[in-house]
């Protein structure tokens, strides 16, 4: 089984709809991240969480919100989706301690299309 | 601000041959980590190799190795005995020690010809 899972894997929605992307991990990591990937722009950080009570904005948080329901779960919401939020979304995790701190492990991605 | 530059948008290699992908970065920090990630058509972002800046020894993982030149701020990836399954986008990435921010280059698309 995959260590970092994302649901759904693909989603098509309409402008103005609320949508939630979910991420779960079995790696036991404290830190979780949400990124979006756009062609030619690479990956950009939306939000990150270093533990359940810690939520921080990344470089492109406008239009997004997150919830850290448990150590293993981190959800990304688009309150009112717009077409320029069409992108590939990745969840990632990293360990706060241990031999490979600072190494982020990615989920399989969610392809979101906003019409 | 830290930046990561991959100057080769596309590369190609013959199966079983060796290819080197280039990456340079800019930082004034001394404690940092560098990574290569692979993104095949399945779009999964897969960690290939990791290098700690304080280690002089170049990291290796099976057929993948790096040439880490700290003074030159260069971090190239060498793929030996290339296989068809190596075809993918390769991203170089940097993070400062203790930081949440993973800075990515724009990627190099690698094609492996049979």
User: How big a fraction of the residues of chain B is strand?
Assistant: over 45%
Tell me the number of helical segments of chain A per DSSP (H or I, 4 or more residues long).
0
Largest sheet geometry of chain A: 7 strands, mixed
Shape of chain B: globular
Which regions of chain B are unreliable across 5 or more consecutive residues at pLDDT < 50?
A: none
- Residues in helices of chain B, as a percent range: under 10%
Q: Major beta sheet of chain B, specifics?
A: 6 strands, mixed
The greatest interface here is: A-B, 23 and 22 residues
Percentage of residues in helical conformation of chain A: under 10%
> Which radius of gyration of chain B do the C-alpha atoms yield?
14 Å
State the low-pLDDT regions of chain A, or none: none
Report the radius of gyration of chain A as a whole number of Å.
13 Å
Element-level helix/strand string of chain A = EEEEEEEEEEE
Chain oligomer state: heterodimer
Q: Give me the secondary-structure category of chain B.
A: mainly beta
How many E-type strands of chain B? 12
The amount of beta strand of chain A, in percent, is: over 45%
The overall strand count of chain A is 11
What's the overall geometry of chain A? globular
Average pLDDT confidence of chain B is 93
List key phrases describing it.
heterodimer; A: mainly beta; seven-stranded mixed sheet; four-stranded antiparallel sheet; 57% strand; globular; B: 114 residues; mainly beta; six-stranded mixed sheet
